[in-house]
Amino acid sequence: MLLSPVPPRARTRFSGWRVVLLAAVALGMTGPGQTAGVSVFVDPMMGALELSRSQVSTAYLIGTLGGAVAMPRVGRLIDDRGARVAMGLVGGIFGVVLAAMAGVVGVVTLVLGFTGIRAFGQGGLSLVATTAVAPWFRRRRGIAIGVTAAVGSALLSLIPILSAFVIGEVGWRLAWICLALLTWAVILPIAFRGLIDRPSDVGQQVDGDPIPADGVPVTVGDGDLTRADALRTPMFWAVAGAVAATGMIGTGLAFHQIDLLGEQGLTPVQAAANFLPQTVAALTATLFVGSMVDRFAPRWVLLTSMLLLAGAMVAVPFVGPGVTAALYGMAVGAAGSSVRALEAAAFPKLFGIRHLGSIRGVVTAISVASTAFGPVALSFGRDLTGSYIEVLMWLLVVPIGVGIFGLVARAPGGTTAD
Fold first, then answer.
1. Among 81, 199, 220, 413, which one is most buried in terms of CB atoms within 10 A?
2. Predicted pLDDT of residue 284
3. Which is nearest to 278 in space by CA: 328, 324, 313, 321?
4. In the prediction, which pLDDT does 1 show?
5. Are 399 and 407 in contact (CB under 8 A)?
6. By mean pLDDT, which of 46-55, 103-112, 250-259 is the weakest?
């Protein structure tokens, strides 16, 4: 039954790292709802539906904004029913929406489809997968979430390749159905046969610590602020601002990468190849930041991320084929992944885990919405100024402002986050 998953059995071996692996696989399955996964469908759908690129881009923007609205509700579902039920529901609906994409016939249905895959794929399933890990760790929570994000991102990068192959074999409509079947085949067993909500469900302790002499597992509180309480703390908005900054600017840079780097002398092939150093840096930064959050104050990680983003923006005029392009790509990749890892790992530390889904749901909504504006901001800015460089210099105020705010923002308890 969808709403009555099989209860977990008691286990003697610590299941936390098993949950990390399953959550990483689930995170990888968000690929069909991510920009990279959707991108391989754009051209064949444009041709079949007789739509212009601007029409498809506008539909994607509206769909992304619409999908962001659902995130707080998904977060509350995690808090109320647990990650297992939430993943089953979100994964099941995500598969339905993917299958429905095969029936798109025009702009209206395309907007509805994009709304669904962005809400339940990019947003909802990502939120559930990364939140599921938090209750299992305290001392090693950062590294655990870092591993989840790194492995999940690596798996996610395979989805566009798989999709492109399937599209070539059976066409884009059947490819959407194949992705729906794959999503159900992977996510539903993870949700109802693999995932475990919390250590106490199987008689275990956080971090795999020994059970107390009385045999009753200790419940970890960590502060447990409500969503309303968390939203009143400046540090929440500092991290949310950093997520929005990298979401908006990073997505804009990626969306226009071929054209932007082409203006700097790179061929289309060289510009496309720049995604490789971005991916490698993103995976490395995710693991590194996860361990940093366990040892250092969140504000220093936030500042580092904003400096990387600002550095990449400033470096654009100096980018050329070769080493400078690779360094640029590494800065962009590390900036985005580090702030996402910071949010996932630091929020349990700052606000506790009882209302973590609701709190992270707000940030996920902000993150999803920010990605809708990045490509448009850079496109309109280039049209107005005649150059990506000038608009990027204007946008520098965003990461610099967020970084400064993060340094002075107070964390729960009334002190700076150190």
1. 199
2. 85
3. 328
4. 40
5. no
6. 250-259
